[in-house]
User: Fold DNA 3'-5' helicase II from Flavobacterium gillisiae.
Amino acid sequence: MSTEVNISPAEKASIECLKKVYHAIDKQKNFLVEAGAGAGKTYTLIKALKYLIEKNADAYLKANKRIACITYTKVARNEIRSRTDNHPAIFADTIHAFAWGAIQDFQKALRERISGLSDNWQSRVDEIGGITNQQVVYNLGYPKITNDEISLHHDDVIKLLTSFLNDEKFKRILTSRYPIILIDEYQDTNRHLADALVANFIETESGPMIGFFGDHWQRIYGTASVGLIQASEAKLELIGKKANFRSDKNIVAALNNMRPQLKQFEYDPESEGDIIVFHANNWIGVRRTDGHSAGDLPAKTAHNYLEWTKNRLNDQGWNISSDNTKILMLTNNVLASEQGYQKVFATFSDTDDFLKKNDHYISFLADVVEVGSVAFVQKKYGEMIEAFKLSTPRIRTHSDKKVWHDDLTALLTLQQAGTIGEVIDLLKTTRKPRLSRKVGEREQRFAEISAIVEEDRIDEDKKFFAKIQAIRSIPYSEIKNVVKYIDNKTLYSTKHGVKGAEFENVIVVLGRGWNHYNWNQLLEWIHGGVPALKQDTFERNRNLFYVACSRPKKRLSLLFTQELSAKAILGLQSLFGNVIIQADLQI
Assistant:
């Protein structure tokens, strides 16, 4: 009884959620855990996996079955593997790895589906003279077809799995291999794949038991993902996790005003939490009129307002630094150029390629070359050798030491003043470190294409060559800036760095610059009146606003550089109360 009295409101809500998850598992019922910001979703997922291991592991391993846990990032995959002790009954991997593992043995059926993937694939098939008996592979992630091989793009693998889910034989085989499938961050699931899972497994009440973990209010990237999974109520149990272990009481209260359907309980009822909102409506100069920036302050003025805000907050004891504060720029007034990686940003169409290190060049340079070279500078040679993934090198003579010193000094010089291509070319010679297998494969293909006269290159090779050439031309110094950004060693972040993070203090700057985001419009619609054709727009804005406002532990401040209407101000007051102040900046 005393235990019940002593647990926090958040802990009590977490226990209730977990009981419902265990009950659904015991009843072999499909379920969806809706875990709001700070709720501890991953904790619940890990507890569910451990419960399943306890119940089913021995029987599953004897029958060559496994529990699948699908993630959307390698970081999440690695965390799940680590926290389940790499248990052999758990298959934890990314959606692409899971999809390819499920379909790769169906070579004939794969070949039959290639032409229907897209018009581009049909053109590739026509150019090669048709599909014969090529081996379908998925390794480089670049689409290509030759007389011997068909290489799939990342998106193709998801499309193909979606197609296979309509095949009865495939469904039986998948179910026999994975009787239980848990999906982390379900809201990021491809819309068509999610629909196929619901239609073929959940609605038919056949196939594997499926458990979804995530939060559809935290879908903030793109429109291809599903957001909320929808199925018949009796066939998918919705379990809300009404806990918030991150934020202090006043911040949780504001989040509950935004989202009364999933009211959260704070961890510490005695906490407070500071919220202060600034707007720049009193600025008397000419606001921007260009495109998606209409109604915003000029960039220099917006910068001055932010500096004023930081000074005002410091006067109130915030003690702003990169160690305890993150400034989230929900505006395009601060671009990648100000972060110092503009060419990286321009080269990759998908920011996940560099922000989540999905691109093999970025992951190799950031996780191997950067880590090892920093260790060398700090004279932590053991860490350098570990980062470079070297067996213990033979350094016995003065000559050996000089070779190492000269090679690493040359690397450091190019890291400061050279390009990625120049660094890669140096490493081909010094092998300190060796290129990763994936980068080596791309460099070899790049060299082979280089030897072909340009007009004789096929379209796929031209695209590949242009992509690698663009990567190689990036100043290496931008990799250092990307690493700083990823490692949260900068004070600033953009919308791409918002999700999943938490900080002591958060300042959110809300302006214009993206065609998909209009904060004045969001606040006018926050309590209803969203036009029928604008629901997707509203949800995109609402979700990013919610995610940004739910990052802080102790203190939250908002600065609106976009001009706000009287109705929008009322919307703000309904969320945050009497904490709205006109920024008093004399310019």
